[in-house]
Amino acid sequence: MSRAAPEPVAPASRIVEVDVVRGFALGGVLLVNMYLFGADSIAWDCPADRVAFAIKRVFFESKSWTLFSLLFGFGFAVQLQRADARSVRILPSYLRRLSVLFALGAANALLFDGDILMLYAELGLGLLLVHRLPTRVLLLLAIGLMLVFPLGRFVSTWTQPNEMEEVESVAEARAELELDQRTHVYAVGSLAEVVVDNASAIPANPLEDVGSPESGLAVFAMFLVGFLVGRAGILRDVPAHVPPIGRVRVWGLASGFGAMAAERVLAATTGYAVFGPQQVGPGIQLAGDLLFTFGTVALALGYAATLVLAAQSPRGRAALAPLAGVGRLALTVYLTQTLMFTTLFYGYGFGEAFRLGPAAVTAWAVILFGVQVIACQWWLKRFRFGPVEWLWRSLTYLKWQPLRLGPIVTRR
C-alpha cells in the first residue's frame, strides 16, 4: 500500500482553543523577554515599578514559556495522530521541520541570545525517542525533570552551606545599570557587534543552567506534559471534556496562585530568591523552589483551561479571536517581537537598554503586543499563513504552499 504524502494542516482544521492559548502565551513571552534589558534590576524601587515587577513575576514569569512549551509537545502529538490516520511517514518531514526551526532560531539568536527556537528544535528530537513510552512513564519522567532544579539546588546548598553570595544593594544595582548604559554591546554596539557577541549562543545547550527553573530539562518536561495532553485527545473534542477541563481550571488557578503567593511571602520575609543569590538555609530554599516550580506549571495549566473554556461560548470566542489570530501566526509573531524590542533597546535603534524600569517596559510591551494583534488580524484577512509559517511549511513539505486566501478545495 502506498503512503499518502505529508501535508500541512489546513487553516480550517486548526484547533481554535489552542491558538488562543498560544496567543496568550506569546504576550507573556514578549513581556518577560523585554525585562531582560535592565528592568529586572532591583535598582527600580519606586511603587509603580514594584507593582509592575510583581505582576510580571507572579502572573507571567516562567508561566509564559511553560505554556508555549506545552503547546509544542501538544502539536507533536497532533502531528502523530494525523499522520497515523493518513498512513503518512512523519519522520522525514518532522526532521525537516526541526531543521528549519533550528535555522530560524539561529538567525533570531544573532539578535537576541534568549532565543528558544533552537532549543525547541534540539529537544524535539528527544520527543521522537520517547513518544512511544507509556503515559505513566512519560508523566514520571516529566516530574523527575521538574525536580532537577529544586533538588539540585538543595543538595548544592546543603553541601556548601557557607558559600552564600552577597546580595546586591540598590545603590550597587543602579551603578551597574549606569555602567551597562555606557559599555554593554546592546546599549552601544553596532548591529555587526551585536551579531558577533551573540554568535556564541549558537547552538543552544539543553544542559545549560540545569540549576535554573528555566533549563532545557524543564522545557523538555513541558514538552512531555503537552504531548500527553495531545495524545489523550482532550482538546480535539472540548465539549466532551468540559468537566475535567473545569477541574483543571479550578485546581490550576487555586494551587498556582497559592504557590506563587507563598513564594512571594518567603521572598519578602526570608530573603529567598528563585533567581539569583540566596540568603536562606537549604530547607527554606527547597520549599521556595518547589513552590515556584510546581506552582508555575499549575498556573500555566489553569490559564490554559480558563481560556479553553472561555472560548466555548460565542461571546467568549469572539472576545478571544484576536489572541487566536496571534496564535495562528505564532512563529512570525515571536520573531517580529525580537525585531521590535531590539530596535527599542539596542544602540543602533532607540538605545533604551538599561534605561527603562518595570512600569515603562510593561507599558511598551502592551503597546508592541497591541500592534502585533492588529497586524495579525489584518494579515489573516488576506493570507492563509503568516509569512514565516508559510516559509516553514514550504521547506518542511518541499513544496511551495498557497499563501493568499482563495477557494479551498475539499478532499473527499
Describe this structure in words.
This protein is mainly alpha-helical. The protein has one domain (about 10-395). It has 16 helices and no strands. The protein has helices at about 15-35, 45-60, 65-85, 90-110, 115-130, 135-160, 170-185, 185-190, 190-200, 215-230, 240-270, 280-310, 315-330, 330-345, 360-380, 385-395. α1 (about 15-35) runs parallel beside α14, α2 packs across α15 and α4 (about 90-110) packs across α16. It is globular and about 60 Å long. The two termini are about 20 Å apart. Residues about 410 have low confidence and may be disordered.
Short structural summary:
The protein has helices at residues 16-34, 47-60, 63-85, 91-109, 117-130, 135-159, 170-183, 185-188, 191-198, 216-232, 242-270, 282-310, 314-328, 330-345, 358-380, 387-396. The chain is mostly helical and 412 residues long. The chain is globular.
